[in-house]
Here is the input.
Amino acid sequence: MGALRLPSLTSLSSAVPRYHFRRQFRLRQSIRCLSADNFLAQSSTIEKEIKEPVSNGGSLRPKLDHEKDRVITPRSQDFNAWYLDVISNAELADYGPVRGTMVIRPYGYAIWEAIQEYLNVKFKDTGHSNMYFPQLIPYSFIEKEASHVEGFSPELALVTIGGGKELEEKLVVRPTSETIVNHMFTQWIQSYRDLPLMINQWANVTRWEMRTKPFIRTLEFLWQEGHTAHATLDEAEKEALQMIDVYTKFAYEQAALPVIVGRKSKVETFAGASRTYTIEAMMGDRKALQAGTSHNLGQNFSRAFGTQFTDENGQRQYVWQTSWAISTRFVGGIIMSHGDDAGLMLPPKLAPIQVIIVPIWKKEDERTGVLEAALSVKESLKAAGIKVQIDDAEQKTPGWKFNFWEMKGVPLRIEIGPRDVSSRSVVVSRRDIPGKQGKVFGISMESSTLVDYIKGKLDEVQSSLLERAVSFRDSNIIDVSSYNELKEAIAEGKWARGPWSASDEDELKVKEETGATIRCFPFDQPQGTKKCLMTGNPADEVAIFARSY
Here is the structure.
């Protein structure tokens, strides 16, 4: 694969083709490259000896050669290196001074804000209110629910000293909030009239992950977590299903991710839940990403914490509960699903910048007219609710800008030069269709015409990304009817879908021998009789197996 180079830059000798950003056109002189080596070296399980380490905020890091050209590794060459190159070059995140943490930069955080904006409306439309719980949780709370403490114990971060003194009881830095939520629910819920109680919080959580990957798995991450309490099991089940449906629609309609929605196996169910529902997305390397979950907690936590209410007959009953969450790993899912060798490819509905305008001129007497036309176009699009910016930096060439904003994943680019000013028209290029095929000339600058055209093209890009992802997903799922077929499918890096009614022990055997887990039992099930691929016994459902993040 040939590298796409910035105009007028000489090629650099390299065994691997890469996208080059030369020193004189640096994206940002001071930014540190987030390479596969220097981020993953933070993980204690895969630390490597680093020669000539340099001190940086108390931690050891590989020395970075700032004179080196910035590159994006081709996806087919090394998917993980490509992913980290994109995060660095697109200025989405950097690594923090504590091993396994990340700093989310403004462009990356803007994607998270777009996710928040959509979901916040949906949560409130479905009757939930936002609130906030403390980050520090007494360790005794975690111990109250046996399976919960067993599931989270290896990942807990503990505080044992405060104010210079050893604490009487150690505190847990929030890994999730079911325990502290129940402690408060017990105080707030007395009668059936207090139900349902439905809340959500936007917060950070800490889980001491040993293998880290920015956005996908970090020591600390951002999320929303919803918590509800109900009078009946049926109400709790409807709530859990309603919220996984909200996540599914968000994935399809906003993120252009064709997730598969279903129920987790018993082995994969959330610690402390009776049932877990999930949305599973296929990444560009064909690994699965658990993109969102919704849990029916039954009465497990209410019994542990004594969260009861008096029903209409005057009897004391334990509440039925749910919890559900989506985190910043969704940002990583968008990167790995839609990106290409040029960098990010963002769905328009979540893109921080939907349209970038690049004014082009050679002579000084052309400058004013081109910039005025660009500003006029910007104001028309902005007034129509389109997120638009102008790149009028004079120290960068138009070709450099084209490549830069493609790398940032901006869905549409508008080019305006002197001839376009004369003809009162613009050139429009699509990020999802490279080269001349994605470029259209002679689009009128007239406000209503241009606005309608741009909105239509944004919708086309959104639909195109979803259609492409659906095609990729479907072409990489193999229907299997035996364990040997399952192993062959997984060995090829694909997802395997087949009938399953075997034991938990058999499921763990599959994981041990293939590295794949049951991602879910899809809601969409085939009709007809089925036999378990492992045992040959009758099976009511098919399951999807895949390697995952």
Q: What stands out?
A: The chain has a mean pLDDT of 88. Residues 262 and 522 are 4 Å apart (CA to CA). DSSP finds 15 helices and 27 strands in the chain. The first strand starts at residue 19 and ends at 21.
